[in-house]
Amino acid sequence: MQTYARQEVAFVRGEGVWLYDADGNRYLDAIAGVAVNGLGHAHPVLARALCEQAGRLIHISNLYRIPEQERLAESLCTLSGLERAFFCNSGAEANEAAIKLARLYGHQQGIENPAIVVMERSFHGRTLATLSATGSRKVQAGFEPLVTGFVRVPFGDAEAVARLAEQRNNNIVAVLVEPYQGEGGVNVPKADYLSKLRQICDDKGWLLMLDEVQSGIGRTGKWFAFQHSDVLPDVVTLAKGLGSGVPIGACLARGIAAQVYTPGKHGSTFGGNPLACTAALTTLQVIDQEGLLDNAASMGAYIRRDLAERLRDVTGIRDIRGQGLMIGIELDRPCGGLVQQALAQRLLINVTAESVVRLLPPLIIGQDEATLLTSRLADLIRAHQA
Length: 386
Fold this sequence. Notes:
2 domains, 4-stranded mixed sheet, Aspartate Aminotransferase, domain 1, Aspartate Aminotransferase, domain 2, alpha/beta, 12 helices, single chain, 15 strands
C-alpha cells in the first residue's frame, strides 16, 4: 500500500554507522532507523546472540513462562527504578498499554469517564487511541471520529497543567508526556518541567506517564531521559532502541500503577517472545559494556557544539538543541529538500516539523564520524540558507 514516500536507494548491508547500497556506495547513517539502531548495523555481539537464540527457540506465547522475558523485566526495572513490565511489539502498542492502564486506574478510582492530559506537538503513535493522543492534525486528519478522553495543553507549560488541576470536578487521571519531543521537532522543555508535573500528579493522585519510545535506552546519554531530573514516573513506555531493530516495546510501571492490570485485562501474542527479549537483553549488555551512555552524551555535545561553530555566521539558524544523540537544528524555513540533498552526499538525515533537521545517530558513533557528519551537514544547511 502507498503508505510511505520512500527514497529510491536500497541498502543491502550495514557495518557500524555505515550502510551500503547494491553498488557498494557507503552512506553515513545519522538517523539509525529513526532511533532504533543504537548499536549501529550488524553488531557482532547482537548478531551472534540472535542466531544462537533462533537456534533454540523463537516464539512460545505468553501462555507459559518465558525466562528471557523475566530477565529483561528485571533488568529494565533495575535500571529504571520501576517495578513491573508489560511487553509488546512497538511504541504505539506500549502507549496503548499505558492509555488503557490509565483508564482502568480511573475506573478503579470510581471515575466514570477518565481523561488523560496530553501535549501539543506530541507524537504517541498511529493506532486510533495513540493518534488521538498525538498533538498533530496531520496525523489525525481523515481518521475521525477520534478517541475521546484526552485534554491537550502546550508542551513545556507546567502551569497550564496546574490550571487544569485547579478546576472542580475534573475527571483527569494521568498526564502522558514525552520528556523531549522527537517528531514534534526535538523540543526540550525547561529543566524543572518534569519535577513540576510530578508534584501536580502527586497532589492530585494522577499517574505521571512518560513516553520514552524515542528518548529511552541511552539515546540522551542516560538509560532514560527522566534520569536527567530527580523525577521517578509512575509509567514509562519504551520501544525503538530497546531491540536494536528487532521489534519490541515495553510499558513499565510502579506503585499503584503496577497493580492495575490483572490477567485478561491486556495481552499480546508476540509480545516479549524469546527472540525479541534476547535482542533487548543483548542491547542493554552492549550499551553497558561499551560505555555507550557516556559516548552518547559526549558525542551529542560535540555534534551540537561543532555545528554551532560551523554555522555561526549562517542566517536563519533558529536553534541547535537536544540531549545526547537526540539533536534538532531548527531553521527559519521549510527544509524537507535537505533529506534528498544529503542522500546525494551519502548522508542519511531526517526532517521533522517541516523546518527541523533531526539527527539520531547510532550510540556507537565516534568523533571522526561525527566530524564527517557535521561537515557534510553544515555545508548543506549553508547552501540551503543562502
